[in-house]
Amino acid sequence: MNDTTNEDDVRWMQLALAEAREAYARGDWPTGAVLVKDGRLLGRGQNRQVTRGDVTAHAEPEALRDAFAQHGAEAAQGATLYCTMEPCPMCAGALKLGGVRTLVLGLRHARLRRTDLGDYDIEAFCRLTGFELALRDGVCEAEYLALRLRWGGDRVRP
To answer: What are the tens digits of pLDDT across the range 47-105?
Structure first.
């Protein structure tokens, strides 16, 4: 856990991990996300790329869509997204457009040593697009890294 991690971060990340485990059990990329605002769960999501045959079926947009469906189009304004894996550029764009202001991560692409995203990280996306995003990472990292390595579907450096 990093120095800025708190009990709420762990509690919400455990819900995101539960979403990731469901995706894994179903045969999808094991990624989960939950959207939270003012201590209230607004939406949850998991990766469904394999089962839906849709490369855009990622956890983060699913959590946003769930929140919008339940709470309206402004639901994500100022919210916090807890995500087991650092968002890809597509998902980062969705977070920006949705108004998410804080991102809490379990695992970073660099820590996993992913090779399919080049030099990308969320900070680069934020610099490129002017996205002001508070970031905390490393929450439940070891637990999620173990699941991701067990899945074994990432292109990584040895």
So the answer is: 999 999 999 999 999 999 999 999 999 999 999 999 999 999 999 999 999 999 999 99
d(CA 82, CA 44): 9
User: Residue 77 CB: number of other CB atoms within 10 A?
Assistant: 12
Please provide the DSSP assignment of 31-47 as one string: -EEEEEETTEEEEEEE-
Tokens of 59: 């956890």
7 is catalytic: no
For residue 102, CA distances in Å to 27, 42, 73 come to 29, 14, 18
- Quote the distance between the C-alpha of residue 54 and its chain's center: 18
Asked if 88 and 63 count as a contact pair (C-beta separation under 8 A), the reply is: no
Catalytic residue among 19, 60, 62, 86: 60
Does the global pTM surpass 0.85?
yes
